[in-house]
Amino acid sequence: MKLFIFKSLEQLLQVCFIATSFIIVSLWMVIGIIQDWTALNIVLTSTGVAAIFFLLFSYIYSRTIIAFKRASMHLDAVRNNDYCQYSKPAFTKGKVIEFHQDLKNLSSHLQLLKSRYDQHIFLVYRLIEQLDSPIMVFDERPQLTYANTAFNELFPQPWQIFRNSSPGLLGLEYVDNNWRFKEKPRDNKWQIRHSEFIDQGKTHHLMVFVNIESALRQSQLSAWQQLIRVLGHEIRNSLTPVSALAQGLSLKAEGEREKKALDVITERCQHLEEFVSRYASITKPFHLNCQMISVTNIAQRIQRLLKDIDFEIEIKTENFWADPAFIEQVLLNVIKNADEASEPGEKIKLVFREKGNTSLIEVVDNGHGFANLDNLFVPLYSTKQNGQGIGLSFCRNIIEHHKGTIELINNTNASGVTVSISLPLPSIAS
After folding, report:
1. pTM for this structure?
2. Can you tell me whether residue 214 is helix, strand or coil?
């Protein structure tokens, strides 16, 4: 059983001082009595001894407390992630110096760990920046602290404009333990994957936005490409011997009727081979050579190539970023489609402009519009009587290789359709 329990160092020092003072003063008074000192001398000398002992105790007490305070200052710096600030020890030798040296070693070790951690965080943020999917980082409040360049796919402005915005201001809500967009069109297009991580001792929220529509479309395109490759292979294997046999028999045929019939078979075989070859074009990979294109130059070139089509051009920007050959092919295809859909005498409008960090190209016609816009980009689907259903699908494939988008929208205030092509500027495209 412990006789004395001290809850603090200060309490221990104070009790030791009182006990020691009492013993020394008592002994001094006994000595005075033995030496036959007068009462006044005993009181004065005892008071002097007590005063000297009090001053000595005060010095020891202050030096001890200062040693702990300086160590506490060092620990406060460590607590604030400042590993380069050291406190001066109250003593130059002994356990205090050893303790301060241990604190310095701890600071150096924590500094090394923090440096490695900062490098990892830097690499993580660099990796996030390179990803094509939009990613946002929210702090514990939560407020937006970081987003990658793909943020532009969700909002037309740079993410820095939305810094410190809450998820609610960005149109997000937390329902049934999942984050989602408040707007149905966006919620149907984007899937949000949420996770948490610790940075500088605080919980942060990481949100990854996955374009479900793009993934589904890529899956559909891959399926169509596989189907077309299989069908094209089988049709060619059948057409080649039939065409060769028909040509051989045509040379040997004696009757005019038989010869014409065999020529028709040969011609239809060649036509079918060309037909298959055109469809096979959407399955071939291609490489883009993007560069800054002068809007004026490409507009003049399109006008020269489409002399028979009456359309007006409205230019509100000087340049845009794309592959000249492929984007020209897309515009020619879209303008021809608009001309075929327009009423005689109606002009087509071609507009070049910028919106935020994207270039917009719009082709507006005054035709009859479309009853079903969902199937227009499906391969082999066409609203034309003699259409082959590969034009728009091929155009979308090209635009998406540019990391852009293409949409067909029925005009609300008038008849016709607007084809809207969005292309990222170089900083976004790269």
Report:
1. 0.45
2. helix
